[in-house]
Amino acid sequence: MLKNIRNITDKILYGVIIVLFLTMFGVTTLNVIMRYLFNKPIIFAVELGRYSFAAIVYLGSIFVMREDGHIGLDIIVDMLPKSMGMIVKKFTRILVLAYMALFCYESGRMVMGNWANRSSTMGIPMSVVYMVMVIGSLGIFIEELLLLIGYNPGKTSSVEEKGGGM
CB count, 10 Å around CB of 97? Predict the structure, then answer.
C-alpha cells in the first residue's frame, strides 16, 4: 500500500515539477524576446520564474533525499568501522528529521501569517508561495524517516550496505 501511495505522489510531483520547469523556461524565454525585440518586458516574468525555480528546488529535494543524494561527508564516515558508521548515519538522520520538523513547523507559521500579504507583481497571496516550503520539508521529513527505518524500495543502492557512509 505504501508503494502505491508513493507511486501516485511521485507521478503528481513529477507532473508538477515538469509544469513548473516549462513555466519557468517559457516565461523567461518569452520575457527575453519581449524585452530585447519589442522593448516590452513581461512585468511578472521575473517573479514567476523565481517562484517556479524555488518550487522546483523544494519539490525536487524530496527525490534527492529518497536516493540519499544530499551532500554529506562520505569520506569521513567511510573511514569509520562499519558499526560506528551506522551509528553516525542514524544519528545524522535523526538530526535531519529534527531540523525538517522545525523547518516544516516554521514554514507552516509563515503560510498562516501571510494570507493578507501579496506578491509585488502577480498579486498572489504569499502563503501560496510559501506553501511549497511546507510540502517540500514534509516530503523530505517522510523520506528521511523511511531511510531511518530502512524502508526504501525505490533506492538504487544502499549506503548502509556499502559499510556506512553519509
Answer: 17
DSSP summary character for residue 40: -
Q: For residue 85, what are the domain limits?
A: 2-162
CA distance 162 to 51: 38
- Give the amino acid at 141: F
Rounded Cα distance, 39 and 53, in Å: 25
Number of domains in the chain: 1
139's grid cell: 516530503
Strands (E) in the chain, as ranges, are none
d(CA 21, CA 24): 5
Q: Which residues contact 50 (CB under 8 A, 6 or more apart)?
A: none
Q: For residue range 81-92, list pLDDT tens digits in order.
A: 999 989 998 999
- Give, rounded to a whole angstrom, the gap between the first and last alpha carbons of the chain: 29
Give the type of residue at 156: T
| pTM for this model (two decimals) | 0.83
Q: Which residue has the cell 544530499?
A: 70
Write out pLDDT tens, residues 14-36. Answer: 999 999 999 999 999 999 999 99
Q: How confident is the model at residue 3 (pLDDT cuts 50, 70, 90)?
A: confident
